[in-house]
Amino acid sequence: MSTDVPLLNDYKRTFVRNRLLQTFTGGLRLTGCPWYGVVGQIVLFIIPSVAISVFYIFRDWQHSGWGRAIAYVICGTAIFLYGIILQALAHFIEKRAEAARGNAVSEVVDPLGQTQSSRPKFDFMEDEDRVVLDGCCGLACWKFLIPKKKYRFNIFFHPLLGGLTTGLGLYFLRLGNVQDIFEGTHRSVLIIIFGWFAIVNALYGLLTNPPPEIATFRALEIYEIGCLSRPFHVLFLILPQIILDYLVENGPFGGIDRYWYGSEPWIGLNYVSHIMLAAMPLLWFLGLFPNVEAFIFWFGEQLEIFVLGGSASYNPLRFSIYLSLSVIQFGLFFAFGALEPGSIASLVTIAGVCGYILSLDLVGILDRLFLKLWRKSKVDTHLNSSQHRYHVSRSKTSRKHSNKVPFSKIAQTVKEFFIHLIFLTITIAILIWYPYQPYQQQSSEGEFLETGSPASNETKSGNGTTSQLRINRTFSVHVVVLGWICVGLYLFLKITNEIQKVYSLFGCVRSPCYSSQVDTLPNMVWICFRSLIIHFGSPILLSCYVKNLVLEDSILFLDPLPKWFEILALIRIMRWIWQNSEAALIEVGMLNLFLLINYPLAQQSGSVGFFVNELSRGVQLLAFGFLRDRIKQFVEKLYFVISLTVSSLEDRASKRSYAGCLFQLNILFFPVVLGFILISSLISAPLLASFTLPIFFIAFPRPIKFWPGPIGSQANCSEDSVYYQQMIPSLIPAVHRANRAGRLGVLHVGSYLIVRHEDRLVWIQVLEKGNNYFYYGAKGMELQETSCHSLEATRLDDIFLDTFEKQASMNRFMFHTVTPLVSLPVLMYSDTRNVLTGIIESQDTLGLICKTYLQTLVWYLFKWIIKAKHKKSCIVPMQITQSSEEIDTTADHVIQLAQLQDPDPISSDSVNEIDLDEWPSSESTTEQLQWAQTTTMGNPNLGPRISTPGSTIFDQMSDIVDGDYESGVEDVHGKSLPRNKLLPPINIGHSSATNVQRTDSLDSLSKKLDNIYLPGGVLEKTPQAQRREPLTKELTFASPKPDQRTFKTFMASRLAPDLHWLNLPEFFNTHEEILENNFSREWFVFAFKRTFKTFLENQGHHDTDQELEDLLVDEDLTDMYRKVIKDAFLTVYGPYSGRNANALAASGGPALPVNAFGSVFPTSVQLDWIRNETPAFLDQVIIPSIRSAFKLAMDQVLLGFFSSMEELEENLIELDEKWYLGLEDEPEWKKAVARQVPNLFSVSAVEAGGRTSRTLYRSHMLSLRECEVNVGRLNPEVVKGLWASLNLELLYLTNDDDERYSIQAEERLLRNLTVQVADPPLGYTIHSSAAIRQGIEPL
């Protein structure tokens, strides 16, 4: 990449300057606008300020509280009415504009001299930098000044919110209150002036034109909520003043001193809120305050995780449900609970039960267990109420999808429900019956007193002894033992997690215990054992530990925190130990170590720390939980800063000329950068790297999920998306098993994993975590790698190659953002690409393809015929031993059946269908082959037939016996075409019967069928004995005589191709010798017997061997097959010439079979006739035959020829069941991948370019097998920091240049891949899965 690429294009710089000014002024567009537009905006901006000033002076004249309250209300009402008037005016202007568009039609002469009518335009935006208005009184000018609200609800809601903001702002910035806080007139005046500027700034964007915000959360705004952000921020800052005044003056529990140790915290918070309100325009300009939508979800997540002990959710509905349940739990505990020594034990037990229940995936369980059953019953009721066949047929497709209830998942959910029920019962029993052992404390006389005893209480009530008793207090033996057991359990799990990863000690040194074997019995036993320890053993242990702590704290502390705060701490820890057991173990270990270090220091100094002795253990655990998360974020952000700073110097391709200067500035101002890291970690906000340069700032806080869109709903789908659709359902369970085994470390919500295999890259995000369940989201990246994508992907390959194949003892890439973890077996497609140039160009190879095509053509033709009879086999065979009257009745019935239209016709599936035994039904089309025709023999409408005499002959078909076979063929996934509207099959009898009654009955039936066209011909009116005589004339490839199409058995007429094949003219007589010399008669007989024997058995025939012999000696039947085979062969090779098969194939060159593989055939009479008359035959027989011939010929050249016909048949069956042959851009290829067909094969030709312009022939094969995929862990703060920069650059600066600096490759931080995996429209992943749940696996 050139280092001269600008960060921002020149044409964007003016736009960005104007946009920044508009953001600071609250939406005023002061540049690129006519003077009267600027004046109008300023007037609208000042009007609320004038009204506020009047009421502000009126408020100061009032000395009574009611007078001041009235001033607040009147001021707010005035702003409300002002907003309503503006919107009424906007609607009036809109109606006038619509009327002007409808009435004012002017005539304009176009450049061609024609008169065209045009309507006036009222659009005021000429481009993004300039506004064009039609005068100070024009409609466009007024529409620009006062835009209309899109939603009627906002017409009243926005003015109402503006009035509320104004009234409360007047209350918040009253002069006396501000002077009391800042103790000075000058500072108070500055606070009031800038505070009112912030409020007016928010009102202008709310009532007129909303400003563009740097803190943009969505690419497209919904419900006009963007303009609510600034008033919402103002109200949020006013809230501390309202709470302070209410609690101090009118507190229901005796004022604020009852809740805190004095009013200093609230006064300090109120002091900060006044300063922040005055600085809000600057904070909005810097983008530090989030959008109202982002703020609600961010604040709710922080409250749910660190106060209520829950987890972040991947969707707003789930988040709302879990947060509501947590708040309801707190309300019930606060209303009915009491932190008294007598009731604390039962309160702890109830909190433990509620914590266990709320930590479950309640929404997922209800959705899978009840909602799906309800949907199924609803669908069944709807289908049962249908009375008409038409409605049922129309409901077939919807029933196919709606009625597929995953009963396996429901059964798994029921099993999971009972497992949780058992665990919950055991938890309740342990919490109830676990004995509480009170600790002992030492009195001044050296006697140990039991906590809660009269002597203990008496000692604590003495003057000057409280602090000493808290210093000398010790835990009970149970608490000490349980605490150290928790520490030991955490260390055990931490060590086992580290040694299972490929690199231990923070990803630096290779672990000697790492094993790539995952699905072994010892590993599965370890997974079960670890799961029980993590998800059941450690929560039970922690529950007992917390119970002792809470009971001791409720007795000991003289001045506890307020009741609601203690209840929150109890609720949080009793749920957190189930919601995130690993994190709870860490926090308990931190608390134990802290107390172990603090108590000796307190005894030596004789002082009592506020945190140690004034706060309960539950509150301390809450604080340690918050501290643990923030320390983790701080370390990860510090790595991001150091890595990006160093990379900007190291990377020569993208090194800027001022990179060294930035490096020195970061070192010089490192305390400032460290402060940014600390603040962003405290508020859980991404650290923004401007243009991905080492210029750091704080981004606005946002939810852990980061992007606002629903999971899995957005992706730039392409042809390669299907590979990820097949891969991810197998990948996520494998990743989850590794996670349960501890091989991925401890995954939290917001953790990122990257998976690499061949050219596939999958980005996995942990969306939600709870009691024995995880939700994952997966995204697939494009396979067609760009230069930047390829550079970073190659670095990933180097990392995983060095780790898993070379097995390096030290991680050479330890400072890379990706840390290798494990290699997992996943059922997916392995990609193999080969160059066939040099092999396919050989004349022997081309000749082998030609010969093999003749043999695969036979096999597919028979399969095509037999499938046409598949759904017609329901007719019971007739016995010829009936009387003449019965035969006559049966013949009449046959005539009626010939005239019926099948209500559910058979139609063909794709040529590449795999399962030949399951054919889905489809509607009949005019393009399908019409097999049934009600014509008579000798009908002149059959058209002229051109026949040519034959030259040589085959051996007698009756004398053919099975023999050795030395050449072979290979096959494609092809389907035989069922015959549409075919005469239902009727079995006339077995050819072995020779009695006179059977012969007479046959003659009688033949007379009845004289005027009925049977598919392929009619019955011959000769005695049975004469019909069983062997052929005296041999079969040739000369054209048959159309006026002699009779068959010796009725079954022969059923198995014959359609008679209209005789209409196809023949011109390529020179190929008959090639056909006869290369046609394998042994394979024809073998395939005929193997194919039709099963069909006859399914029809109820007994002597199938003899009947097959009778069919083979029927020269009319074999002539029909010969005709079809010849025409199919000429469709591919007809236009070419040669003395033998090799010369014939060589004349077409390698392009002939490659093009035929892609369904591109040379122009010929046969091809035109087949496309017009029987297009399904081309798709179902010719195309799969040539594709299978190509594949098998390649295999024989490379691997050797087949030794027998049985081996050939086995390979054909295997290909038919486990292979798909076709082009990659065909829809059937994607369907085959989605169905997980074991093997796929494709051939293509590309121009090599250069001086020779040589054509390269390539093959592409996919094999479904267990492949080793490499899994690495990403630094989440690096990802969020790059995404924050992308969000700012594209959504606010609109710098969408494809070659911009921030999208260039950066090998250490994977900048290009991180940008690519963002949600659209910023990113461009080709696949995004829905949230995938993984729960309790079978133990």
Structure, explained:
The structure is a single chain. The chain has 1339 residues and is of the alpha+beta class. The protein is built from 46 helices and 19 strands. Strands 9, 10, 11, 12, 15, 16, 17, 18 and 19 form a nine-stranded mixed sheet that branches. Strands 1-2 form a two-stranded antiparallel ribbon. It is globular, with a radius of gyration of 42 Å.
Characteristic key phrases:
single chain; 1339 residues; alpha+beta; 9-stranded mixed β-sheet; two-stranded antiparallel sheet; 46 helices; 54% helix; globular; Pecanex-like protein; Pecanex_C; membrane; transmembrane; Pecanex
Estimate percent helicity: 40-55%
Mean pLDDT value: 75
Low-confidence stretches: 105-122, 251-262, 373-405, 439-474, 871-1036
What is the radius of gyration computed over CA atoms, rounded to a whole number of angstroms? 42 Å
How would you characterize the largest beta sheet?
9 strands, mixed
Task: Report a brief summary of the structure.
The protein has 1339 residues and is of the alpha+beta class.
Strands, helices and their partners?
Layout: H1 10-24, H2 35-61, H3 65-103, E1 106-109, E2 115-118, H4 139-145, H5 152-172, H6 175-182, H7 185-207, H8 229-250, H9 264-278, H10 280-286, H11 292-306, H12 316-336, H13 344-358, H14 362-384, H15 389-394, H16 396-402, H17 407-433, E3 440-442, E4 448-450, H18 454-461, H19 466-472, H20 477-500, E5 503-504, E6 509-510, H21 521-556, H22 563-579, H23 581-605, H24 610-614, H25 617-650, H26 659-668, H27 670-682, E7 687-689, E8 696-698, H28 721-740, E9 752-757, E10 760-770, E11 773-780, H29 787-805, E12 818-835, H30 843-868, H31 884-898, H32 996-1008, E13 1018-1019, H33 1024-1027, E14 1046-1047, H34 1050-1055, H35 1072-1078, H36 1081-1098, H37 1104-1112, H38 1115-1133, H39 1141-1148, H40 1151-1157, H41 1165-1173, H42 1175-1199, H43 1205-1218, E15 1219-1221, H44 1227-1234, E16 1239-1247, E17 1255-1274, H45 1276-1292, H46 1311-1316, E18 1327-1328, E19 1332-1334
Helix pairs in contact: 2-3, 2-7, 3-4, 3-5, 5-7, 5-8, 6-7, 7-8, 7-9, 8-9, 11-12, 12-22, 13-17, 13-21, 13-22, 17-21, 20-21, 20-23, 21-22, 21-23, 22-23, 22-25, 23-25, 25-26, 25-27, 25-45, 28-44, 30-36, 30-38, 30-39, 30-42, 31-32, 36-37, 38-42, 40-42, 41-42
Domain Pecanex C-terminal: 1163-1330
Main location: membrane
Pfam families: Pecanex_C
